[in-house]
Amino acid sequence: MARYSFRLPDIGEGIAEAEIVAWHVKVGERVEEDAQLADMMTDKATVEMESPVSGVVVELAGEVGDLIPIGSTLAVIETDGDGDGEIEAPPADTPVEKEIVAETPGAEEASVAEVAAPVPAATPAPAPAPVLAPLAAPAHDRQVLASPAVRARAKDLGVDLGQIHAEGDRIRHADLDAFLRYSGGQGYHAPGASRARADEPIKVIGMRRKIAENMAASKRAIPHFTYVEEMDVTALEDMRADLNANRGGRPKLTMLPFLIVAICRTIPQFPMINARYDDEGGVVTRYGAVHLGMATQTDAGLMVPVIRDAQDKNVWQLASEITRLAEAARTGKAKVEELTGGTLTVTSLGPLGGIATTPVINRPEVAIIGPNKIVERPVFDGDEIRRAKLMNLSISCDHRVVDGWDAASYVQALKKLVETPVLLFAD
Q1: Strand pairing of 306-307 and 301-303?
Q2: Strand 17-23 vs strand 46-50: parallel, antiparallel, or unpaired?
């Protein structure tokens, strides 16, 4: 028998280690050549590691969440043949990047977004809606594998584990949660008042760990301040409604394309807003082009795809690009170049809105803009009272680079364009 040591390859420039986010094999299992061994996550991507040989897995480097140095042994595989051998993983230019993770807020040049195939969560990803066995049929004629904690929780809830079908080899908390969610309350009986769920420790790994690290680094390194201003968007909303009513085959316009046009038109007067700060080099780079990141919520976490050269696009082109990038982020089809190199970020909670937000800067950028929800309120217009659509807009800035006066002046320039939307289309 021959033993092959599969070493973790150099999977990205400057990467010293990678995190195990999922194992697809176990010790003692047979693996075929080119079959998937593990998913490894770096600051830039989640990469699938494939076995270079067929054989039986005799050793694995660690558990999910462990960091493995580049060049160290990831797995040992015993194959048919004579003697001992050692094999390294494919070189870095081998096309193994099949899942791409998006740039997370605060990530420096994270290669790729507030998007890629979903990153494994801290617990095993829940299976699709579980198949429920008929409630009247006896379900005790098959062996049910589950941990003591899952069994105890199911007992407290009055759930028969035999009714739950799990994709894996045993029933887990996620399977029980899915059963309760999809059964509509018909699959269990919990008499009396509702019971507290059992405590469930969740290991922070993968994209969630990266988000946590980058957010903490951003707050540690950057002295944030946030400025909020109220804007009357009544005229803009009327214009948007007229354009949508006559859009033909073009995409439907939201508020965001108009806001992006306003952002880009005011940047030349306030170049300190569209910049990145190199902490170590002590250099601030002010960019001429606006590469606008848009924070996007996905199942994998907050990703930030980038609209390249936003200053060159009109509202219709921006609407198309926003839709395309958001969909690519959520489905894992975004390219690396679409997820890096942002110079300024916009973050919006959409219909959730909020009165005001204090967004965290996407380091090493120096500012982030957050429009909030639109509300209707009566306002004084001279001696008259009229109905107006009002929206608060927040901006968080790096006080090492942007002064409060600059931020306030920039937002006032935005306010002028937003409240007089015809200026957005003037040369």
Answers
A1: unpaired
A2: unpaired
For residue 125, how many other CB atoms are within 10 A of its CB? 12
Cα gap 33→36, rounded to integer Å: 9
* Residue among 4, 38, 45 at smallest CA distance from 21: 38
Q: What is the pLDDT of residues 383-404, one digit of tens each?
A: 999 999 999 999 999 999 999 9
The model's confidence at residue 274, banded by pLDDT at 50, 70 and 90, is very high
Helix (H, G, I), strand (E, B) or coil at 269: helix
Which sequence positions are flagged as catalytic?
399, 403
Beta strands in 247-347 (DSSP E): 275-278, 283-286, 292-294, 296-298, 301-303, 306-307, 344-346
User: In 56-205, which ranges are continuous DSSP H helix?
Assistant: 148-157, 173-182
In degrees and rounded to multiples of 5, residue 215 shows phi and psi of -65, -45
Residue whose C-alpha is closest to residue 316's, from 246, 372, 403 = 246
Q: Residue 385 contacts by C-beta under 8 Å, 6 or more apart in sequence? A: 378, 379
DSSP 184: T
* Residues sharing a CB contact under 8 Å with residue 91, sequence separation 6 or more, in sequence order: 9, 10
Nearest to 342 by CA among 109, 42, 112: 109
The residue ranking higher by pLDDT, 427 or 333, is 333
Helices (H), 84-199: 148-157, 173-182
Whether residue 139 contacts residue 162, with contact meaning beta carbons closer than 8 Å, is answered with: yes
Cα pseudo-dihedral 77, 209, 44, 100, rounded to 10 = 80
- pTM to 2 decimals? 0.63
Q: Which residues of 307-339 are buried (b: 16+ CB within 10 A; e: fewer)?
A: bbebbebebeebbebbebbbebbbebebebebb
Q: Which tens digits make up the pLDDT trace of 321-343?
A: 999 999 998 888 888 889 899 99
Q: What are the tens digits of pLDDT across the range 138-163?
A: 444 456 788 777 888 888 888 888 88
